[in-house]
Amino acid sequence: MSACISPSDEPLARRLIAFTEAGLPLVADPWAWLAEQLQLSVDDCLALLQRLQANGLIRRIAAVPNHYRLGYRHNGMTVWDVDDEALAQLGPAVGALPFVSHCYRRPRRGDWPYNLFAMVHGRSAEDIEPDRETIRALLGDACNADEMLVSSRILKKTGLRLGGA
Amino acid sequence: MDAIQQALCQHFQHGMPLCAEPYRAMAETIGSSEAQVLDALQRLQRDGGLSRIGPVFEHSRAGASTLVALAVPEALLERVAERISQYPEVNHNYLREHAYNLWFVLTGPDRARIDQVLDEIAADTGLQPLDLPMQRAYRIDLGFPLAGNPVAGHPQSKAAPGDTP
């Protein structure tokens, strides 16, 4: 785990992940439930959650919809070969587009020339195409090639699993 | 989704109150009651429209992760895909329409474990994995705007931007 999690929180954080990675039970006071599991007071449990959120281990605490089941069946992984020197400016610009859910820089490899990944979602392939055009226009001449890899099937999707961690 | 479920997804997919009895606070925000909110979430969860409620963890802070692709010959695809899903370190596994047709995320306590699993996969499948670790995040999964009820099949455009932080 990251050094920015204080050593005293680390064992607790691991247990917190184990208790919550599959989701909290739908009860009136889920934090009281979690506090009991962790053998903490409710106040200490809330403070722990706040610390873990502040240091970034927890991205957000939220109701996470299953977009696929809600009809957003098509996720398009758009990949772009963008001039390296333009990425510092263009990466954040693509990431800021409202329809992009994930946007990352990744390394090029051998026969894989694409260094910018942006995930877009829609109810159909046609739904996604205009979004792709928007990204293409934004990248302009800095982009040398692009592709879109549409998911044809989800085989496994689980939350974070730390395994032997 | 009914109106309450839709309001819950719209308001709380990016974050929910971190306080005792959060569903009471959420009910106040959307002008409903705690019982109605819990009922709506329970139904949504039962129908598969809700992945979970709770903390969303940042993989890179909790250990190491990478995006991996394999170019699997069509005849072997089912078998290799099934094999990959069995690895506990694999937490997303998608078929995509591309020469690199199998895409998955590997997570582990550290990069050494990731390298080890990549070697195991190469030995197991006889295929060379494309290892694409994140180098920079320009946008991380904050969800995306949901438009109306997609199951009803309205051909309307996607929701206006604005509710993503």
Automatic annotation (TrEMBL), chain A:
- Annotated Gene3D superfamilies: 3.30.70.3460
Pfam families xrefs: AsnC_trans_reg2 (PF17805), NirdL-like_HTH (PF22451)
Ranges where the Siroheme decarboxylase NirL-like HTH domain occurs = 14-59
Q: Which residues form the Siroheme decarboxylase AsnC-like ligand binding domain?
A: 69-156
> By its UniProt entry, which InterPro entries does this protein fall under?
AsnC_trans_reg2 (IPR040523), NirdL-like_HTH (IPR053953)
State the signal peptide span.
none
Protein's recorded name: Nitrite reductase
Origin species:
Pseudomonas mangrovi
What lineage is this protein's organism placed in? Bacteria, Pseudomonadati, Pseudomonadota, Gammaproteobacteria, Pseudomonadales
Automatic annotation (TrEMBL), chain B:
Name all Siroheme decarboxylase AsnC-like ligand binding domain ranges.
64-138
Residues of the Siroheme decarboxylase NirL-like HTH domain = 10-48
- Its EC number is 4.1.1.111
Which Pfam family name is an example for this entry?
A: AsnC_trans_reg2
Q: In which pathway does it act?
A: Porphyrin-containing compound metabolism
Q: Name one GO molecular function term.
A: lyase activity
Top enzyme class: lyase
Q: What UniProt keywords apply to this chain's record, in alphabetical order?
A: Lyase
InterPro entries, sorted: AsnC_trans_reg2, HTH-Siroheme_Decarb, NirdL-like_HTH
Its recorded reaction(s) are:
siroheme + 2 H(+) = 12,18-didecarboxysiroheme + 2 CO2
Return the PANTHER family for the record: SIROHEME DECARBOXYLASE NIRL SUBUNIT (PTHR43413:SF1), TRANSCRIPTIONAL REGULATOR, ASNC FAMILY (PTHR43413)
The similarity comment for this entry is:
Belongs to the Ahb/Nir family.
Q: What does this protein do?
A: Involved in heme d1 biosynthesis. Catalyzes the decarboxylation of siroheme into didecarboxysiroheme.
Fill in the subunit field for this protein: Probably forms a complex composed of NirD, NirL, NirG and NirH. All proteins are required for the total conversion of siroheme to didecarboxysiroheme.
* Protein name per its UniProtKB record: siroheme decarboxylase
Source organism phylogeny: Bacteria, Pseudomonadati, Pseudomonadota, Gammaproteobacteria, Pseudomonadales
